[in-house]
Amino acid sequence: MTLRGNPLLRADFTVEPWVTGERGEHGRAALDAVVESDVFVDDGPFGTTLEGDDERVLSCAPDRAPR
Asked: What CATH number does domain 2-59 carry, 3.90.76.10, 3.40.190.290, 3.30.70.930, 3.30.1120.10?
């Protein structure tokens, strides 16, 4: 599947430690960075899923991208 000619990627992440019903500063920072990257974000109770073209998804975690 492609999006605007680029492969479509989906990634999931969880930020810990967390307290039920609260998002710590580090959790808010992670979510803000993903939202600003212009990808689809589903922020669920057990993790966050992002989806978009490969370049945008990989830019959310450049130190984790394959080389």
From this structure: 3.30.70.930
